[in-house]
Structure formats: structure tokens, C-alpha cells
Design goal:
The structure is a homodimer. With about 270 residues, chain A is α/β, with parallel strands linked by helices. Chain A has 10 helices and 10 strands. In chain A, the strands form 3 sheets. A 6-stranded mixed beta sheet of chain A has the order 7-6-8-5-4-9, sandwiched between helices. In chain A, a hairpin with a 7-residue loop joins strand 4 (about 90-100) and strand 5. In chain A, helix 3 crosses helix 4 (about 70-80).
């Protein structure tokens, strides 16, 4: 995390919250120059997370980033009603991919937090994503609601929910985007595939945001893009007062940088 | 389909069932040489499907292949209890991918037929796939049961079902394979990813067969491999007396050929 912060120092100023002595020792051992970064000394992990959340809640920081501490401790501090970082929105994950075979950036939600979101939760997940993508400067992103079918089918609840959300969008309930579904992934990202299947959608072959019907499909898409389609990726948790950047040790340095950029800009 | 049959003529002899006059005219217009293929004249679509199923049921043919006729008509003929092609097994789809970024062939099930299979259905889907992959000469395929987590979590039913199926495999109820789950896709196909997450599995990074928890995740994986990871693919329906080859007009000629090969060999 220190290394990622060092490489991202042109993008943002970092405040390191934790055991100051340990932080300095880790930086020295890893040969990372943290001389320009502020350190808030708080040796206890739980209190350190609370202190970091407080910095974000009071407006002193623009985003929260997880270091070498359990995700559950960070998220508990974020979700604490007294801490001031929680909002009435649902928390959801937004991933960003640069896929060599696709002509623009591709956002995917929710591959990490909401397991089997119902209709209302899906609407909130979409709204979180659209707001973040709008903040990134994409003013009217094309949002595809994925299912395994292109037509609403009572046997497949994900297709019915996608159709209902599309109806809500048409009624003006979901703003800031062009939205359509149900769509199969190929219709959303390949004009040719949409044409062969006779699908007339404003999104056909040109989606910015892919909304996955459940966490399994989101997770499989995420992993297939990174591990089989050579995508560069980043991710952020939305829905709190400010974005939460949750990188893991398994992420590449590049992936951590993209996540930081996403957290700052979204 | 005629073109695919022409290119596959070294692999198999084709019997064309349908309106003989139309078949000859189509071949002529498409400049496909069908001179070596037998034609069974049956102008009615439904009867043609029944006649083709009968050829397979009686052992005259090794596989059934769909031409320019609705999938529902073909499947109705296959499922007809009187026609002799149906078995007591569940019908399931098996897809085959050659992904440039993976070190061997990758099979995926079920991306096309079973929407939300329960535990018993999943077991049958696995057994169908293992039998077919065994027939292809892979004697002990590594089967990964995918979920969005690597540990069984009561909040995620797909992870619990994967754990239960793994327990059944250990009890000797699912034979002919090495099986493990729940696994996230990256653990199943990347040794490095499995190592970073501390996952000790005989499958880690070396899966042959990926069993998807629901049709949405299967469909998304299928489409992302073909449209974003440059995979070559084929597919077949298993569980009937002989394989059913269902290619669509959207498939490339190469994909149709792979499906034919899969149908003949599995």
C-alpha cells in the first residue's frame, strides 16, 4: 500500500493512519520514500480505522483506503452510524477494466459486496455506479442490465428484474444514463452479435457499465477479464460519504494505482 | 450448416433430413458440394426433426445436429418419450473453449439450459460433463465448482452447494474426476492466485471443467471468453441417448466445426 501511495503521490496527498513506528519501519524495509506523507499515530488497528474514517467524514480527506488491516475492521468503521461516513445509500462495488479487446473502459457492478440483490437493491447499485461514472466525466453512460436472455422470461427472474428496471428508467426513476436490459453480455459489447440476434438497443455493442444480476456472475466476469482477457483493473466501494478503496495484496501495483485514481475521481 | 457439414466431412458422414428440393437448392445457391451426403426427404419441419431423432435413437446416427429450424422444435422431438432418444438423465449444455491465455482446453457447464439448478440437478450436470470429457480422452478431469467465494458461507447458497457436492465426491458419489469447490474462477485457473490466497486444492490453477452455479454466471463466462478473451468455442447438449449439436447462425464456421467434433466424440 505504501508503494502504491508513493507512485500515486502526483494524484493525491496521503495521510497514513496507524502505528507510526511500524509505518516508518515498513517504509524503510521496503525502500519506499514516505517523507512527503503525513502520519497520524494510532497503534491500535480498530482506533486507526475509526480515525481514518473520521478524517473522511469531516471532509479532511477525499477517500478512504485500506492498508494491511482486515477488510471487516475497515468496513465496520465505515458503517458505524456515529462515525459520519455512512449515508442512506446501499454500499456497492464498482470495478473498472481496460480490456485490450474492447474499444473503451468497461465498468462492472456488483462483483464483490451484494450477494443476491433484490430489485430495490439493484436500483441503488445502478444509481451508485451511474453517479460515480458521471463524476469520472462520462455524462450519459450506457448501462446494460445483464441476464442470460435478451427477453424477459418469467422462468428467469434476473431477466424479469432487468425489464422492470428498464421500465423504471423509462419512467424517469433512474437518471444520468442510457439504460437497457435484459441483455446478454455479447449484445452489450458486440454490435455484430446484437445485429445477428436482431436486437435494437441504444446500448448494443457499446456498453460503459455492465450490471450483473448476482454476485456469482459479477465475480466470474471480473476474474475472467483479469485472468483470461488480460484486462487491467481497479475497484472501489461506493455508497458511503466518500469512496472506499479496498485493494488486496493479490492486486498488481498497476491495479492498486487504478483503484486509487477511481477512488479519488468517482 | 451445410457448409459446416462440408468442412466436417472428413470427421463424419452427414445425413440431411428435410425438404430435399430446398436442401439441394440451398446447397447450389451457397455453392456447397453435398454430393456425398445422404438426403432423407421430409418437407415438414416437425416430421423432419422426428425422423432425424429416430435415426439417432435406432443407432443409425451417432449425433443429432440442428439445421435451420427452431431449437424448440428440435428439443421437443428429442424429449418425446416415445421417440427413444430421451434417457433418465437431465439435459445439460457443455461448452468447450480454447482460450489463448490458458494452458489447455477449458470446459464450461451449464451456460445454456438449466437456469437455476438445485443440488440434485447440479450433480447430474457434473456427471453429464465428466462422462463426455472422459469420452474425449481426458480420464480424470479436474472439475472446479465455481462460486464467488472460496469458503462455504451460509449467506451464499452457491458456496454451500459446492461444498456439499465436494463432500459427495469424497464419499464416492461422483466418479471419474477430481472435484473441488467452492472456488472462485481465479483460484481454478491461476496457480499464482490460489497461492496468494493460500488455497490448497488439487485443482488450483489447473481446472479442466468449470461448473457454474447458475445460468447467468455461465452465460457471462461463455460470452466473455468468446467476445473478450478471443476464445474459440464449441458446444453440445448432453443427457440424451446421443449428443445434440445446436449451432446457431451467429456461430463462426470454426465454432460450428468444433461443436461437430465435440458432438461426435463426447
Amino acid at each position: 500500500m505504501l508503494e502504491a501511495a508513493y507512485y500515486a503521490k502526483e494524484m493525491a496527498a496521503f495521510i497514513l493512519v496507524g502505528d507510526a513506528e511500524k509505518i516508518r519501519r515498513t517504509a524503510e524495509e521496503s525502500q519506499v520514500d514516505i517523507s512527503g506523507m503525513e502520519i497520524v499515530n494510532e497503534p491500535d488497528n480498530i482506533k486507526a480505522c475509526q480515525a481514518a474514517v473520521s478524517l473522511v467524514a469531516t471532509g479532511a480527506s477525499e477517500a478512504l483506503m485500506k492498508g494491511l488491516v482486515d477488510t471487516s475492521i475497515v468496513m465496520k468503521a465505515v458503517l458505524d452510524k456515529e462515525a459520519g461516513m455512512r449515508t442512506d445509500k446501499i454500499l456497492s462495488h464498482l470495478a473498472l477494466f481496460a480490456v485490450p479487446t474492447y474499444h473503451k473502459l468497461l465498468f462492472v457492478t456488483d462483483a464483490a459486496i451484494n450477494i443476491a440483490p433484490d430489485l430495490a437493491a439493484k436500483k441503488s447499485i445502478i444509481q451508485n455506479a451511474v453517479e460515480a461514472v458521471n463524476n469520472l466525466g462520462i455524462s450519459n453512460p450506457k448501462v446494460a442490465l445483464l441476464s442470460a436472455k435478451e427477453k424477459a422470461d418469467p422462468k428467469m427472474s434476473s431477466s424479469m428484474e432487468a425489464a422492470e428496471l428498464t421500465a423504471q428508467h423509462k419512467n424517469g426513476e433512474i437518471l444520468g444514463c442510457i439504460l437497457d436490459g435484459p441483455l446478454a453480455l455479447d449484445n452489450a459489447i458486440s454490435k455484430e452479435s446484437a445485429k445477428i440476434k436482431g436486437i435494437d438497443s441504444p446500448i448494443a455493442g457499446d456498453a460503459d457499465v455492465l450490471v450483473c444480476p448476482n454476485i456469482e456472475s459479477g465475480n466470474v466476469l471480473y476474474k475472467s477479464l483479469v485472468f483470461l482477457a488480460d484486462a487491467k483493473n481497479g475497484g472501489v466501494v461506493l455508497g458511503a460519504k466518500k469512496p472506499v478503496i479496498l485493494t488486496s495484496r493479490a492486486d498488481s501495483a498497476e491495479s492498486k494505482l487504478i483503484s486509487i485514481a477511481l477512488g479519488i475521481l468517482s
